[in-house]
Amino acid sequence: MPTNPNTMMKAVVFTEYGSPDVLQIKSMPKPSLLKDTQVLVRVRACSANAADWHILRGDPYALRAAFGFFRPRKPTILGNDFAGTVEAVGAKVTHVRPGDDVYGSVLSGAFAEYVCASQDQLSLKPTNLSFEEAAAIPCAGITALHAVEKVGNVQPGQTVLINGASGGVGHFAVQIAKSHGAHVTGVCSTKNLSMVHSIGADHVIDYTKDNFTVSNTKPYDCILDIVMSQPSACCRVLTPKGIYLPVGGPGGGLLGSFADALKAYFKSLFMSQRVGLVMAGVNREGLESLKELVEAGKVKPVIDRRYGFSEIPEAVRYLEGGHVAGKLVITV
Question: Which end of the chain has fewer CB within 10 Å, C or N?
Answer without folding.
Answer: N
